[in-house]
Structure formats: structure tokens, C-alpha cells
Automatic annotation (TrEMBL), chain A:
Its main location: endoplasmic reticulum. One of its GO terms (biological process) is signal peptide processing. One of its GO terms (cellular component) is signal peptidase complex. It comes from the Eukaryota. PANTHER family: MICROSOMAL SIGNAL PEPTIDASE 23 KD SUBUNIT SPC22/23 (PTHR12804), SIGNAL PEPTIDASE COMPLEX SUBUNIT 3 (PTHR12804:SF0). It is a single-pass type II membrane protein. It is found in: Endoplasmic reticulum membrane. This is Signal peptidase subunit 3. The lineage of its organism: Eukaryota, Fungi, Dikarya, Ascomycota, Saccharomycotina. It holds the Pfam family SPC22. It comes from Maudiozyma saulgeensis.
TrEMBL record, chain B:
It comes from Maudiozyma saulgeensis. It is a single-pass type II membrane protein. This is Signal peptidase complex catalytic subunit SEC11. Keywords: Endoplasmic reticulum, Hydrolase, Membrane, Protease, Signal-anchor, Transmembrane, Transmembrane helix. It is an enzyme of class 3 (hydrolase). Its main location: endoplasmic reticulum.
Length: 187, 169
């Protein structure tokens, strides 16, 4: 009859084929779920009340070089969003991050920086109501200074699946554009 | 023992290995990177990526976006680091350079202490191996086990030798 190696080969190939079909079904069904919830393009977030706090740092780890201090900006902000629609059977976690885009016309650059991010491990954590929260990171512009620039804030999300391709998106909402003031000079 | 049959089996084995290698090189060319599939080695992106997960990379984008998960190698070491882009700055000129700052989701601070020399940023076109586009859980743990366990190589080769000898009774 059939030898052991033939049986093992047949079982191995068959289970791999079945496995690939199951994986394709998981990926397809989870994509379709997000598509018909219409959340891929229409997630909503309300960012408000952004207060920038500008100071000078002299450490290399805060952008300073050769003893020249660097302007660093932190913010306080309010955030209201409900991203629980992004969670289904194939969602392992959702990573949200609050970014600011700005142009540096003197140096001719387009920039985007992250002020705050969070890991949402399940749908319960996805309802975010933050008031006067602090940014996680102290942000500096590589080539120049953030002060005097208009920063446009947006909330992004990234769905990490249990298997398959990563998905990214931006939450819609009113435009939030904040001008960063100069650091208060210390006497 | 039939020498011809054994040599034919050996030739078959060579075909299997060389077609696997060709598949790897084709994927490298299509994705425009020298290492299109990487295995996660550290826990710095948990809970998203665990040690042993397999990541599929793509490198044909000119600019990375904030939030992309990129793989880079620090100059001397061949260890791929998988972290997320925290900040990006790029020039508005055509084909301007892009500078990226990265950070592991599970790390407290950004990657400046990891960068070679005194750099505070990565350059996208030279330092980035690729951007993570797809993910398969845990299958890469075999390679970690082979690389880190002294006896794993011998165990794996011994297993392959035994199966090839016992095959086709």
C-alpha cells in the first residue's frame, strides 16, 4: 500500500492547502467586515483645546547639538473618539497616534511629527475620552524650530491583524491648526 | 544500492533548494530590498509583533509615512530592527532626502541611542531595509531556534538526513 513517507507527504500537503484557504477566508472576511462598517474612510475623532508648551533643551537626545539649545514643544490636548468599529475577529491591536504636519518654508521641508500615541488592545479601550492630556513626546524640528509654524493635527490609526496585511487610516473631523508660540524667555 | 536512483533523488533535492532560493531572490527584486522577509527578534514592538513572527517587507515607496513600521539595520550589525516611524522630514525638491526618527511601540524612548555614531535620524534611502506590509504569526521561531540553540543545527540536519534515508522504502 502506501508508504509512511507518502502518507506524511499527502497529509502535509493537504493540511497546508486547507490552512491557506482558511487564512484567505479570515483575511477576506475581516476586510469585508471593516469595509461594510464604512470605518476605513469614515472614522471620526475630535481633537480640541491644543495648548503648546515650548521650552529649550540642551541634550543631544532632545535635538541639541554642540551646546546650542534646541526648541522643544509639548502639548496638552483633548481627544474624543470611538474606534471600536475597527475591532473584529482578526484584529490583534489598534495603534493610534496623534500627529502634526507642518511646512518649514525657510529650509524647504515638509514634516510630520508624532506627539502622542497609544496601543488599544481591545474594543473597550477604543473609546477614548481624554481631557487636558499631555503629549508623550517632546518634539523638535530637525532643521529649524517649530515656533511660528502652523501645525495641522490629525489622529491616525493602524490595525494590526492576527494574520494578513496591516491597515492604516486617518480619522475625519474638523481641521485643527495651531500656531506654535516662541518659548518664553527666562530672565 | 542503485547509484543512479540515489543521484536522481539528490538532484531532486537540489532542485527544491534552488527553486526556494530563486523564489527568495525574485521576491527581493520585486520588493526592491535585500531582505524581503524578516523574523522579529526582539520584544520591542509587543504586543503587535512577538519574537518569531514573520514580516513581509516592501521597499518601492520613495517616502515613508509616520506610523509605518520599518525595518532598518544599524551599520555594523546585521540584526534587523523593526520599529515604527515617529517623525519624518523630507525636502520639497524632487527626490529630496527623507529623514526618519523611529521608536519601538513597547520602548520608553525613541531610537536615538541605537543609531550609529551620533546620528539623531535615519536616512530613508540608505538605512531603511523595507516597510512592513504583511504579517504571519510565529512561523519564524524555527530560525530563531536554529540560530540561538547550539544543538539545534545538528538536530535539524540529523532529522533531514534520517527522513531522506528512510524515505521511499
Amino acid at each position: 500500500m502506501f508508504s509512511l513517507s507518502q502518507r506524511v507527504q499527502y497529509i502535509g500537503n493537504f493540511s497546508m492547502t486547507i490552512g491557506l484557504v482558511i487564512i484567505a477566508l479570515i483575511i477576506g472576511s475581516s476586510h469585508f467586515d471593516l469595509f461594510q462598517k464604512d470605518i476605513l474612510r469614515n472614522s471620526q475623532a475630535a481633537i480640541a483645546n491644543i495648548k503648546p508648551i515650548v521650552g529649550l533643551r540642551t541634550s543631544r537626545f532632545y535635538g541639541a547639538s554642540n551646546g546650542n539649545p534646541k526648541e522643544n514643544t509639548r502639548i496638552a490636548f483633548d481627544l474624543n473618539t470611538d474606534l471600536s468599529g475597527l475591532f473584529n475577529w482578526n484584529t490583534k491591536q489598534v495603534f493610534v497616534y496623534l500627529t502634526a504636519e507642518y511646512n518649514n518654508t525657510e529650509k524647504g521641508t515638509v514634516n510630520e511629527v508624532t506627539f502622542w500615541d497609544a496601543i488599544l488592545p481591545d474594543a473597550d479601550h477604543a473609546i477614548i475620552k481624554l481631557e487636558n492630556a499631555r503629549s508623550k513626546y517632546s518634539v523638535w524640528d530637525y532643521a529649524g524650530d517649530l515656533s511660528g509654524k502652523d501645525l495641522q493635527f490629525k489622529l491616525h490609526w493602524n490595525v494590526q491583524p492576527h494574520i494578513g496585511p496591516l491597515m492604516y487610516g486617518v480619522a475625519q473631523g474638523d481641521d485643527v491648526i495651531v500656531n506654535i508660540p516662541k518659548p518664553e524667555s527666562k530672565v | 544500492m542503485n547509484i543512479r536512483a540515489e543521484l536522481a533523488k539528490f538532484l531532486n533535492l537540489c532542485f527544491v533548494f534552488s527553486s526556494a532560493y530563486m523564489f527568495w531572490q525574485t521576491y527581493s527584486i520585486i520588493a526592491d530590498t535585500h531582505s524581503p522577509i524578516v523574523v522579529v527578534l526582539s520584544g520591542s514592538m509587543e504586543p503587535a509583533f512577538q519574537r518569531g513572527d514573520i514580516l513581509f517587507l516592501w521597499n518601492r515607496n520613495q517616502y515613508s509615512k509616520v506610523g509605518d513600521i520599518v525595518v532598518y539595520e544599524v551599520e555594523d550589525k546585521q540584526i534587523p530592527i523593526v520599529h515604527r516611524v515617529l517623525r519624518e522630514h523630507h525636502s520639497t525638491k524632487n527626490n529630496g532626502k527623507q529623514l526618519l526618527l523611529t521608536k519601538g511601540d513597547n520602548n520608553a524612548g525613541n531610537d536615538i541611542p541605537l543609531y550609529a555614531g551620533k546620528k539623531t535620524y535615519l536616512a530613508k534611502n540608505t538605512d531603511i531595509v523595507g516597510t512592513v506590509k504583511g504579517y504571519f504569526p510565529q512561523l519564524g521561531y524555527v530560525t530563531i531556534w536554529v540560530a540561538e540553540n547550539k544543538y539545534a543545527k545538528f538536530a535539524l540536519l540529523g532529522f533531514l538526513a534520517i527522513t531522506s534515508l528512510l524515505g521511499d522504502e
